[in-house]
Structures are given as C-alpha cells and as structure tokens.
Amino acid sequence: MPDPLAIFEAGVTRVEFIMNIEWHNEKRKIKDLIPYIANPRQITDKQAQDLKASLDKFGIADPIVINTTNEIIGGHQRKKILETLIGVDPDFEIDVRVPDRELTIDESRELNVRLNKNVAGWDFDTLANNFDIEDLIEWGFEQDELVGIDYQNPKLDESDEIIRQKEMFRVLISVPVDYAIEIKETLEALSDIPGIEIDYGAN
Q1: Per 3-state DSSP, what percentage of the chain is helix, strand, and coil (rounded to 5)?
Q2: Distance CA 28, CA 34 (A)
Q3: For the chain, which residues make up each domain, given as ranges?
Q4: What is the DSSP annotation of 107-153?
Q5: β-pair type (64-66, 93-99)
Q6: Which residues pair with 123 in a beta bridge?
C-alpha cells in the first residue's frame, strides 16, 4: 500500500488504493450461516438485551460478516439474538458481507478478532455535552463507565486496599579500610537500581 506521508508530500489529493480483498452485500438465510467453532467472543446477559433492543428497533444495520463458505467471521451474537430472542423464521434472509474470494483459516481467525478488538474508544466530553446519561445507559453504557471508572476493573475502595510491606533482606559486607573507597563506588552504582538501599557503617 502506498505510504500516506509520501502521498501527502507529493501533493496528491486523490488516490485509489488497490485492496487485496473486496467486500459486497449478499442475501443469506439465517439457517445457512455457520458459526465459527472457535469464536472467542462472549456476551453478557445485559449486552444480549441491549443488542436485542437494537435489533428490534433498527434491524441489522451492521451486516453479519461471513466467508464465502457461509461461515460467520463477525456477527455470531446478532445471529443468535435473531434466532432465539427475537424468534426470526430460519428461512428469513438477511444482508451479509461477503469477500470476493474465500479467506484462509488464518485470515478468518485474524479478522474475527480484529472486528471486535480494533475499535475506537469514546470521547466522554462529547458524550457528556451531546447526550443524556439516561439515554446512554439505556443504549448499553454502564453508569460507572460514564463517570470515568473502568467498570470491568473497578478500583478498590480505600478501606479495601491491601497495604503490603516491602519484603527486604540484608547483606552485610565487611572490607578492609584500604578498599573502602573502591567498594563505595561499586555500592553507589548498585544504589541506582530501584529497590536497593545502601547503609554505611564503621566498627
């Protein structure tokens, strides 16, 4: 693929990129779509209900992605919701995205993960200034998520935090006075290592 920076520096304003794979929409019966046996994506009960509400209201705005073999690459949960929670006729046809050639197993596995993981984050300032929090919660957000807390990994309350004492062991080094300066330089180098503390003494 051409280097975008080189294109910009050359003053080119329009470039047509040659893609390895081209995608198009087709119709498929829900019952003919084959779930990928190793699909790692999971969904919670709340996410399932939110997805059901979206499909009830808007239909399949985001088509299921399949291989030319009808194996699902992205959209397992949408198929499951349509079949179980909504109760769509299995002969019902839906739009799917299909590549112009069969993807290899490795390509399918990679795309399966990328479709769910390579997504953008949220600008919470924009959300706060343009949307009502009640609507966002109804549409799938968690309340804790909207106040800036990672609801999947909540921080411990101060009372629940475990304060661990640093585990240390001491090493006593005795050297002749004649070598004190040389040894001190070595020890000072060791003291630059995080976690090492040097105490000097004389007897």
Answers
A1: 40, 10, 50
A2: 11
A3: 21-117
A4: HHHHHHHHHHHS-----HHHHHHHS-HHHHHHTT--HHHHTT--TTS
A5: parallel
A6: none
Q: What is the pLDDT of residue 153?
A: 45
Residue 82 near residue 29, CB atoms below 8 Å? no
- Answer for the pair 167, 157: CB distance below 8 angstroms, yes or no: no
Report if pTM > 0.85: no
CA distance 138 to 50: 8
Cα–Cα distance, 151 to 63 (Å, whole number): 29
pLDDT for residue 157? 44
Q: Using alpha carbons, list the distances in angstroms from residue 110 to 20, 34, 67, 80.
A: 15, 18, 13, 22
Which residues, other chains included, contact 8 with Cβ-Cβ below 8 Å and sequence gap of 6+? none
pLDDT value of residue 159? 42
Q: What is the pLDDT of residues 171-183, one digit of tens each?
A: 666 767 666 677 7
Mean pLDDT of 89-112: 93
- Assign 160 a pLDDT band (cuts: 50, 70, 90): very low
Structure confidence by residue, pLDDT tens digits, 69-80: 999 999 999 999
Residues forming a β-bridge with 182 = none
Token pair, residue 182, equals 């040389």
- Cα torsion 129, 134, 138, 141 to 10°: value is 50
Alpha carbon distance, N-terminus to C-terminus of the chain: 72
